[in-house]
Design brief:
388 residues, Porin, 19-stranded antiparallel sheet, 6% helix, 19 strands, mainly beta
Length: 388
């Protein structure tokens, strides 16, 4: 079935021969997009092994939508991507939902729904909507797309008038998601040099409020996301055999997050050719590591508390100079503190991106982007696995 879906997407792209296209077949709208890129870096293998250059950076998607009645709409998207050692061009069901908008102030969406997260999570796949190639990785990390893009559940949404103060949009959502053993999150959750084995995201929920101010193009927002997750991994520990000899032994550990959450604040000003945005995210992933000694018939040892907190923020600006040229830049900062109470380790990433977008026509575009990235407290290999 997976190969059939891949063939359908390739056929769709072949007959369109364009990066983005839309058709109306009866009452059904069909949209598609495709992009491919080349990465090369001088000293950091960030996201993928790129020091020698790599073309393992592409994505394709096709989505269909139709209005069943005036207030009811359904949609579905199939998606495939490759980013180094994740994705590998496998086709997955990205989202599929039924949407019932009863009134402007109340709507219901059920199925595999997009997660309202920050300014750009719901539109991060649509490359034609922005200047940059990579969204700020301090917030929209490509490795976490699989769990942040959608969830199996439901959402309530609406838009409330505030008289002269503008309007207030709200989103409330709740659902569950799978954690793929081959996905980006699994690779990030590996402890030390041991592999991730299995994990469960029991639920994910939250809310987003967006204030559409009376000033044209200006909006602000606040986000709160909570979830519950446990995962099993392997950690290698040194077992002393003598004063001068030790044996590296793998043991399984259970990592249980302790009421993890993400809080975010967003601001965007979109005025014609000029776009300015800024976001701040604070994340608390603190939890307990409990060695699982059941393989030796022993009870679990007392757990070790591990405190992991991080903050990330960015400012972004883009400006359209002509109908075919758009320039942009952003400055993004991320830092993570482990065992915050004892200030054991701090990881930091600072990223300055410069972007140029060239629109060939309505469906074809070419982009170029340079990143000046500074990392501290992170090894080269770990730089691909920063958890924002």
């Amino acid at each position: 079935m997976k190969k059939v879906l891949q063939i359908l997407i390739i056929f769709f792209l072949f007959i369109s021969t364009e990066t983005g296209k839309a058709w109306n077949v009866g009452e059904v709208s069909i949209h598609g997009f495709a992009s491919t890129g080349y990465m090369r870096s001088d000293h950091n293998n960030f996201l993928l092994a790129s020091e020698d250059g790599s073309f393992e950076f592409n994505e394709v998607g096709i989505n269909l939508g139709t209005a069943i009645t005036e207030n009811i709409r359904v949609g579905i998207q199939l998606y495939s991507f490759d980013l180094g050692d994740i994705g590998n061009n496998d086709v997955s069901l990205d989202w599929a939902f039924l949407d019932y908008e009863w009134k402007e102030w109340l709507g219901l969406r059920v199925g595999k729904i997009k997660i309202p997260y920050g300014l750009y999570n719901e539109t991060q796949d649509y490359d034609m909507l922005r200047t940059c190639i990579l969204l700020p990785q301090s917030v929209y990390h490509k490795y976490l797309r699989e769990v942040l893009i959608s969830t199996q559940g439901m959402a309530l949404y609406g838009k409330l008038p505030l008289s002269r103060a503008g309007k207030l949009k709200y989103n409330l959502f709740f659902g569950t998601s799978e954690i793929s053993n081959d996905g980006g999150l699994a690779k990030q959750l590996s402890l030390g040099d041991g592999p991730f084995k299995s994990g469960t995201l029991q639920y994910i929920g939250g809310s987003r409020l967006t204030w559409l101010t009376p000033i044209k193009g200006l909006k602000g927002g606040a986000n709160y996301v909570f979830f519950s997750m446990d995962y099993l991994a392997t950690m290698y520990v040194d077992i002393p055999l003598s004063p001068s000899l030790s044996l590296k032994t793998p043991i399984e550990v259970v990592f249980t997050l302790d009421n993890p959450y993400i809080a975010a604040f967003s601001l965007e000003y979109d005025f014609g050719k000029l776009n300015i945005s800024a976001e701040y995210f604070y994340m608390d992933f603190s939890g307990w590591i409990i060695p699982d000694l059941s393989q030796w018939g022993l009870p679990p040892l007392p757990g070790e508390k591990r405190s992991i907190r991080s903050s990330s923020y960015y400012t972004l600006i883009s400006y359209r100079l002509t109908n075919w040229l758009e320039l942009g830049s952003y400055y993004s900062i991320y830092y993570q503190e482990q065992n915050h109470d004892s200030d054991e380790l701090t990881q930091r990433m600072k990223d300055l991106a410069l972007s140029a977008r060239f629109d060939i026509n309505q469906s074809w575009l070419v982009k170029g982007e340079i990143h000046l990235c500074q990392l501290s407290g992170v090894t080269e290999i770990q730089s691909r696995s920063i958890t924002p």
